[in-house]
Amino acid sequence: ITLATALANGVPADQRFNAPSAASFRIPGGTWNVKGGGIGSGTMAECTVVSSNTCYASIILDADVGAEATVEMARKLGITQTELDAVPAAVLGANNATVRDMASVYATFANGGIHVPPVYVTKVERSDGTVLYEHPHSQSKVLEPEVARQINDILPGVINAPDGTGRRANINRPAGGKTGSAQNNTDAWFCGYTPQLATAVWVGFSETRPGRDGTERLVSMVPGNTPITVFGGTYPAQIWAAFMNSALEGLPALPLNPPVPPPTTTTTSPEPPDILTPPEAPQPERRSKVPDVLNL
What we know:
By secondary structure, the chain is of the alpha+beta class. It has helices spanning about 1-10, 45-50, 55-60, 65-75, 100-110, 145-155, 155-160, 235-245; strands at about 15-20, 20-25, 30-35, 40-45, 115, 125, 130-135, 140, 175-180, 185-195, 200-205, 210, 215.
């Protein structure tokens, strides 16, 4: 979502940002300490592929991006069921979101930047074909086509690049997606799409457990609670791939960005002369006087 905000606000995909293993940022109210994704520096595209937290912290703090614009973009893309706080940590998943809303966001990417609100029932018919109910279609343009195309060029790298965090989501057809992992591994996501289908997967414990001090806490997905340490690129990516392979069986593999048709030109043949109309007499040739340039 922050990537879409930055691109929509004119930040180039190849603009480089610092991406150390850890960084501290001065923000209103104190210091924001961020860890993860240390690659030194990287373009927005490179930082997306490796899921660099420090890089994206720099991106959301960029004057052309910002937390307010990012949260507004999130709402337009499809996050409507939860309240969103316009804080820098929103870029790292500080706000809650439903799985349905996350699927809706990625469906907007799949749809070329056009958001269609999700519905569960589109039409109800009697056995004789009489329509009892039909949901009225609505849509809104969220992203310019060129911005949507850039996103659709970048997100496949999460799955296909050698250093992509979503390599386990490879389904051997064009697809884009993004991993997500919460602090202390309490939540893990993989959200992705093809032109025909967008799917979001969340893995985590739905109920809290009491900690050593008796306080109810979210459950970390680490050995002792789960067989492995769970990140977005592990179980969520694998579940996403298994579901998508089944759901897309029999459907053609389509590019995320449809080919841009070449510009066409049309020519209109001149009307044939009316043979009943006598031709006009030739007009005397007009000549322009050539100025004297001898002394120039």
